[in-house]
Each structure stands twice: as C-alpha cells, then as structure tokens.
Write a structure and sequence with these properties.
Structural class: alpha+beta
Number of helices: 2
Order of helices and strands: EEHEHEE
Bound molecules: zinc ion
CATH class: Alpha Beta
CATH superfamily: 6-pyruvoyl tetrahydropterin synthase/QueD
Number of domains: 1
Strand order of the largest sheet: 3-1-2-4-5
Shape: elongated
Length: about 120
C-alpha cells in the first residue's frame, strides 16, 4: 500500500450553537487541512496520483470557504460547521471534482493539537 498526503490552509469563522462553552460564540480559526490518498496501484510514472492536481483541487475547494463565516455557507445550513463536518464537506467536494482519486482520509486541524478526521467507509 502506498500513501500520499497534501496539505493546505484556510481561515474562517464559525460558531457552534449546540456546544456549550467558548465555541458557542463567533470566533475564527486558521484551519490546517491534510488530505491523504492511498492505494496499491501506481501509474507508469510510479505515482499513486498526480500531486499537482490534488493540490490544485484542494486549493480550489478551500478557496470557496476561505475568509468566510462557515455558518452562512450553503453546506452548513442544516448541520453546524464542526471540524468533523468541515472534513466531511472537503472530502465530498474533492470527490465531486476528482471522482477516481483514492482519497482515504481528510484531517481538519482547528489548532496545532486539535484535529478531526473524516475517513470514508
Ligand atoms: Zn471553533
């Protein structure tokens, strides 16, 4: 099995209505996002996938939510923009753009030490 990882960042604000504590209030994060892909098949160039395409697509997906209030984003009107659901949103957005890519994990860091991941079944 081979695994590759790309990483990017975005800044956004959110508030968590169902959380009782400091995160109920409007605040922001400099989110770090890590996207992993894995598989055992390599292309003729010896690569699992094209890093450049994955990086460019991740940047495009993150640009849509960068410097925004996530609660006002159409993807988070029904459920709150928790780190878990942001990871799920990023995964779905990447798969919509790159349906054949073997994305295996999306991590969203709210801080250097707090991270939530979405791992497809
Ligand atoms: Zn927060």
């Amino acid at each position: 099995m081979f695994q590759v990882r790309v990483e990017d960042n975005f800044a956004a604000a959110h508030y968590l209505v169902h959380y009782h504590g400091k995160c109920e209030n409007l605040h922001g994060h400099n989110y770090k996002v890590r996207v992993f892909a894995e598989g055992s098949e390599l292309d003729e160039g010896g690569m699992l996938l094209d890093f450049g395409i994955l990086k460019k697509t991740l940047k495009m997906v993150l640009d849509r939510i960068d410097h925004s209030l996530l609660n006002e984003n159409e993807h988070f009107t029904e459920r709150e923009p928790s780190a878990e659901l942001i990871a799920f949103h990023i995964y779905k957005s990447l798969k919509a753009e790159l349906p054949d890519s073997p994305i295996s994990r999306v991590e969203v860091f709210e801080t250097e030490i707090n991270m939530a991941a979405y791992i497809p079944d």
